[in-house]
Amino acid sequence: MKNKYFLLTISCLLSLSSFSQWQLVDSISNGSFQCLHFVNSDTGFAYNDWATLRRTTDGGNSWDTVSIAFDSYMYDIDFANNNVGYAVGGAWFPFNKYYANSIMKTTDGGLNWDSVYGNSSGGVFYDVEVVSPNEFYAVGDYMMVHSTDGGATLDTFSISTPLESFSKIEFVSPQHGYLLGRTYVQTSTYLNRLYETTDGGSTWQVVHSDTLGYQGFTDFVIDASGNGILFGEKGQVRSNQGSGWNIVPLADSSLIFTMAEMADGRIYAIGDDGGIKKLFETSDFGNTWSSQLIPVDSNNYVVDMSFPNGGVGYFITNRHVYKNSALISIIEEKGLLQLEVFPNPTVNTVSVSLPVNEDVSVQLTNISGSRVKEMTFTDVNTFEVNLEIEPAGFYLLNVSAGGQNTVVKLIKK
């Protein structure tokens, strides 16, 4: 059976050039990565559940292991500047260095970390927002804490019910911030609320709420003008300069964004539209989205991501760290390109047909982002790609012709 691929001039298109730009820069053989944060394009940290904190200062070219007196889960890292940073996590069943509700701090760029808070009652912090070297907020299950003296003392906040969990806090200025929480209502039903403060966290008001299922709202991004997006099981709920939050349907109703970050006016989000993970990007707060494939599969899922600026991005899977240093240049609209590719799946060879003769450039990339082969053809409308010696698995075939290109996902049996 022939598979026909039609790419129209819309913003949600794929190119293999984008896929191949994601380069594997670090791997671990034990444990699983849990969180990732880059202070700038070159300096970043990745923590795994074997209590190992990996650090790079050259954009992922080399990594070392940082000593940290901490054995718990770590969910978030944030820095005030190149030297001062905080990390949060915890454990529900603490023992020894397996701290609950843990906050760690560094003052030397991440070479050394000290505990500034931890207890034995059981619990975790999911997110930390660093406002300045001495001021930060940490939120988690049933609690939020705030410090203005670098963690020497902590204030606790009671916002609503004592059983509300908070998953993210973000400040757009020292006085203006947002907080995402949810409360159990009944089986598979949760009250999700987005809060806003304009007085540095002294008071919080609900700006949007909705009763949703288990997944609920997964993340949000917002700027100083009040333009924001809530992501989750309803697709995207958008605010226009704080004038109210309204559901804006996605073109693909099956698409769910699981995490998002904003950098230099662009929003990047990881989405799943039926089993294939993609990186989505928008520069107009969700009016249009472009997408690109990323080198993951069902056994190698995205855990966290970090975009220190609009052109450089990183993400971690359970055991790998990937980098893309050409984000802006590789997310772009493409024109109409019609292909016929068959057979797919294949045992050895696939044939590709175009409607007219063209000079064609072809790249084949495996699921890890490594280029397998490159080919060029002159004035053809049919050509073949031989996968006979390649291992079984998924491949991406990029075909460029006439200034246009498209990507086909191939399965080698």
TrEMBL record:
Pfam families: Por_Secre_tail (PF18962), PSII_BNR (PF14870). Residues 341-411 form the Secretion system C-terminal sorting domain. It comes from the Bacteria. InterPro entries: PSII_CF48-like_dom, Secre_tail, WD40/YVTN_repeat-like_dom_sf. Residues 62-161 form the Photosynthesis system II assembly factor Ycf48/Hcf136-like domain. GO terms for cellular component: photosystem II. The keyword Signal applies. GO terms for biological process: photosynthesis. Residues 1-22 form the signal peptide. The keyword Transmembrane helix does not apply. Keywords: Photosynthesis, Photosystem II, Signal. This is Secretion system C-terminal sorting domain-containing protein.
